[in-house]
Amino acid sequence: MLKDRTAIVGIGQTAFAKHLPESEKTLACRAVLAALDDAGIAPAEVDAFASYTMEETDEVEVAKAIGAGDVTFFSKVGYGGGGSCATVAHLAAAVATGQASVGVAWRSRKRGSGPRPWKNTAVQLPTPGQWTRPFGLLRPADEIGMLARRYMHEYGATRDHLFNVALACRNRANQNPDAIMYDRPLTREMYMTSRWISEPLCLFDNCLETDGALACVVVSAERARDCPRRPVYVHSAAQGLPAQHHGMVNYWNDDPLTGPAWTAARHLWKQADFGPADVDVAQIYDAFTPLVPLSLEGYGFCGRGEGGAFTEGGALEIGGRLPLNTGGGGLSEAYVHGFNLITEGVKQLRGTSTAQVPDARTCLVTAGEGVPTSAILLRS
Amino acid sequence: MLTPVIDEDGAPFWEYAARGELRIQACAADGCGELRFPPRPCCPHCRSFAGEWRLMSGRGRIWSYVVPHPPLLPDYAAQAPYNAVLVELADAPRIRLAGNVVAAPDAPLDSVDPARLRIGAAVRVAFTETGGVTVPRWILERG
Ligand SMILES: [Zn+2]
Predict the structure, then answer these.
(1) How does the average pLDDT of chain A come out, rounded?
(2) Predicted pLDDT at B42
(3) What are B137's strand-pairing partners?
(4) Residue A98 predicted with pLDDT over 70
(5) What pLDDT digit, counting tens, does each position of A233-262 carry?
(6) What's the mean pLDDT in B17-44?
(7) For labeling, which of A41, A80, A292, B57 is most exposed (least CB within 10 Å)?
(8) Hey, what's the torsion of the CAs at B69, B70, B75, B81, to 10 degrees?
């Protein structure tokens, strides 16, 4: 079992901005070195790396730049934002099984100033792109918008429910000086009158476009006790590729509204000592607001079709049933393919978040829903 | 406009479309015969590699739809806001084809007022050629 045998002992990040002058490689090195400094571990001790696809800097470049030692484990998880939590899972497995002792996971991204991936028509995979892109389903917002409208139709979820998600993230960003949207409050009127991106999704249903990098350090629980920061244990971890799943355009299985979250959740909870009702704070992947109600259902915080209603009454705010994305998330802190959700989970369990949930002991962190995904349960 | 980047598994769909036929891959094993989409080498139900392409009635219902607005690729931005729909086939409701509801087979993607679209609305297939490839379009039954 992986349970509590490893811990995250260091986190690091660069500034977040629409445009940062340095290269992705430089940003990656800065974040990794900051995380190692936070952990009190020398870069020469690093012997494992994990990243996920759409990362431009490979481990060879990072390892030689930071002066890592001999590296004996390295992995790269597929499916972009679906792989964020899996990096921690892979490092935890490697450390727990003796393949390595000090693991570093990172994400560096210049999505704010760089090109939009969907504009690249040269690298589209034939399957399943041939079945969707010619018809103008060009962007992730179009693909998820399709599921969102069906979800709203089937279960009576409303734009107000999606606004609740956007607002909770923005409110937390307004407490976080590092967040892109720190000084920009959101109102219901702003949300309801904003421009459409892909109806039924408007501007505020979409994540930010950010330059930035983050990293974390994973070591064994024994080693973690010697590190300067309070260890945050990897309690449970899972990846999720459901039967007959088709990727972001999951339109062809029996039930497209039951996504990879359900698969990851079953495995996650099976290995855990606690359940959804015991989660103090959640960092749920929010590239698009509808992913949150879907994930709330998938990870068992409410029943099928109840994700919209769950957001009512301030449930996602500090003091609510499930404080959400307490650094501001991808919607309002920074969109760095979900890695800021991992570091925010660590901050909560250290007690150092800018929107601290009192006495938070347990945190769920999830990766991109819709694509093959991953999730981790952290505890202090 | 983007044309389909066709792979070996999907090629027959586009070849039949060029003849004005909507065909979906099916298992050809005795006692199975399950339809499957997107196409793939073998049947996920019985694992047979024997396949055929079964003619569909061309009728279906809108399962969901979006109305994309810019920023979009230039050819699409020129027609935005347009509709993109998922149509569940009457012959196989769990097979849903992405497409566009248009006023006539060769009409642009924005030729139907999005306010006329409803989940559950009945549509029938039509075909048009774009960039040298024949693709399905969808016409509202109660035009
Ligand atoms: Zn079969």
Answers:
(1) 96
(2) 98
(3) B126
(4) yes
(5) 999 999 999 999 988 888 999 999 999 999
(6) 97
(7) B57
(8) 20
Exposure b/e, A94-123, CB count within 10 A at least 16 = b: bbbeeebbbbbbbbbbbbbeeeeebeeeee
A201 CB neighbours in chain B (<8 A) are 66
Whole-Å CA distances, A181 to A15, A169, A279 = 13, 10, 26
CATH class, range A6-114+208-379? alpha beta
Give me the pLDDT at residue A248, please: 85
Note the residue count of chain B.
143
- The answer to whether residue B3 is domain-embedded is no
CB-based contacts of A358: which residues, under 8 Å, 6+ apart?
A: none
In the reported structure, the alpha carbon of residue A129 is separated from the centroid of ligand 1 by a whole-number distance in angstroms of 25
Q: Of how many residues is chain A composed?
A: 380
A120 touches chain B (CB under 8 A): no
Query: Residues A315-340: pLDDT tens digits?
Result: 999 999 999 999 999 999 999 999 99
Distance from CA of B133 to the nearest CA of A (A): 10
- On the question of pLDDT at B143 being above 70, the answer is no
Domain boundaries along the sequence of chain A? 6-114+208-379
Q: Examine residue B115 and state whether it is found in any structural domain, yes or no.
A: yes
How remote is the CA of residue A313 from the centroid of ligand 1, in Å?
Answer: 49
Range of the domain at B63: 11-140
Tell me if B125 is assigned to some domain. yes
- For residues B48 and B29, is the Cβ–Cβ distance under 8 A? yes
Tokens of B21: 């036929």
Instruction: Kindly report whether the global pTM for this prediction surpasses the value 0.95.
Output: yes
Distances (CA, A) of B138 to B91, B102, B135: 16, 6, 10
C-alpha of residue B48 to centroid of ligand 1, in Å: 5
Cβ of B68 within 8 Å of Cβ of A198? The answer is: yes
Return the closest-CA partner of residue A327 out of A312, A342, A337.
Answer: A342
Weakest mean pLDDT among A52-56, A275-279, B56-60: A52-56
**A209 near B CB under 8 A:** no
